[in-house]
Amino acid sequence: MKREFNVVIERDSDGFYVASVPELRGCHTQARSLDKLLNRIKEAIRGNIPSLIAFLILLASSFSALAGGSVGYEERAIPLLRTQPDLLRFVQQSLDVAPVGWGVRLGRDFGDRVGERIPPFHFEARPKGHKGPYTLVLTINDPKTGLSPGDATSTIVTIEIHQLIAK
Question: Which of 21, 93, 109, 117 could form a disulfide with 103 if both were Cys (CB 3.0 to 4.6 A apart)?
Fold first, then answer.
């Protein structure tokens, strides 16, 4: 079955082309050329679909839950970010990230994976060097390590940064 998605393409102040897919939360990329951008956004879409399917499965299952305080930033997020050095550099240079976050904890319906935490992982963060409370949420997703059907071929790790509304 072939799906079509709207892709928004913009050019940033540094001359990069930036593409995003409004229907797929967190699906975006950038490149210096349009050809490279189009290839990257296609790969990002392919990588996002298994993650979306996994999320819908978890949403429908009453045997999974968000597990707060159970995902270590250094142990789980940094290895994912290392697969995308530019993202890792951006996060390390721009944000102070809480050492512990949350993710989905698999329930008893998932057999030998029961209790496992899977992406997306969420961590409170704040702009680098700012004091005081965390005001942002950093979301790190990797479709390959979630519940994708089979092994996802994409190695795209995506991040989202959102304003923290309330605790």
Answer: 117
Q: Is residue 56 part of a domain?
A: yes
Stretch 30-48: mean pLDDT: 83
Nearest to 54 by CA among 127, 149, 130: 149
- Is there a domain that residue 1 lies in? no
The three-state (H, E, C) secondary structure of 51-64, written as one string: HHHHHHHHHHCCCC
Domain extent for 74: 8-163
Answering whether pTM is above 0.70, one says no
CB 9 within 8 A of CB 37: yes
Distance of CA 12 to CAs 19, 30, 31, 50, Å? 10, 9, 10, 29
